[in-house]
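Lab notebook, entry 202. We have the chain sequence and a SMILES string for MTE, and the next step in the workflow is to get a structural model of the bound complex before anyone spends time on docking refinements. Request logged below.

Task: model protein plus MTE, output C-alpha cells.
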Amino acid sequence: MSEPSALHDPVKIGIVSISDRASSGVYEDKGLPALQDWLTRALHNPITFESRLIPDEQEGISAALIELVNAGCCLVLTTGGTGPALRDVTPEATLAVAHKEMPGFGEQMRQISLKFVPTAILSRQVAVVRDQSLIINLPGQPKAIAETLEGLKEADGKQIVPGIFAAVPYCVDLIGGPYLETRDEVCKAFRPKSAVRATRPA
Ligand SMILES: Nc1ncnc2c1ncn2[C@@H]1O[C@H](COP(=O)(O)OP(=O)(O)OP(=O)(O)O)[C@@H](O)[C@H]1O
Ligand SMILES: Nc1nc2c(c(=O)[nH]1)N[C@H]1C(S)=C(S)[C@@H](COP(=O)(O)O)O[C@H]1N2
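Result returned:
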C-alpha cells in the first residue's frame, strides 16, 4: 500500500557513479541503478535524485560534488574509485571539498566489508560534510553498495553488523537537513530519543 508522502519530508539526494569504463560505455553502469534502488527501498521520504556518471578524474569529481551540494542535496553518495589503483582518486576529490571529515563512516564500512571480502582493506573511502550536505564514498562493486549501507544480516533478518546508513538520518538532522525516515526491514536508523520526531497526524 502506498503511503501519503505528505507525512514525510521531501529529500533531494545526489548519486555519483565514478568509473572510467562505465562512463565511456565499455560496460553498462550498474552503480547509479543500485544506489537508486537501495535508497528507494530504504527511505519513506519522497526522493528527487540528481545523478552523475563520470570518469575517475579528480577535478571533475570535486566539481560534481560541489554542484550537487549547491543544488540542495542533503546527502550525496558516490560509488567507485576508492581503491589503490593509479586512477582511483575519489577520496582525494572528496576531501578536497570537505568542510568537516566524518571518519567513522569509512571505518565502519571497512569493518562491514571485511565480513564479505578480505580486500576490503584496499578501500580508502571517506565521508565528509560540506555546507549542509553529507557526502559518503562507497566502493565500486555494485553489490558493495547494499552491503555497506545495510550491513550484514542473518537469514531471519537479525542484524549481525550494522550498516552505515543507520547513522545517516541523525547526521542529516544535525547539519540541518530534512527528517529522513527509514523502513526498518531494510535499515533501522538510530536517533537519540530526544531527536525522534513524533509521528505527524495524517
Ligand atoms: N559503475 C559500475 N558499473 C558496473 N560495474 C562496476 C562499476 N564500477 C565498478 N564496477 C565493477 O567493480 C570493480 C571495481 O571497481 P573500481 O571502482 O575499482 O573500478 P576500476 O577497476 O577502477 O574500473 P572503472 O573505473 O573502469 O570502473 C570493477 O572492476 C567493475 O567490475
Ligand atoms: N562490501 C564490499 N566492499 C568492498 C569490495 C566488495 O566486493 N564488497 N571490494 C573491495 C575491493 S576489491 C577494492 S579494490 C576496494 C575499492 O574499490 P573501488 O575502487 O571500486 O571503490 O573496495 C573493497 N570493498
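Notes for the group: The longest strand covers residues 11-18. Worth checking against the assay data. The mean pLDDT is 94.
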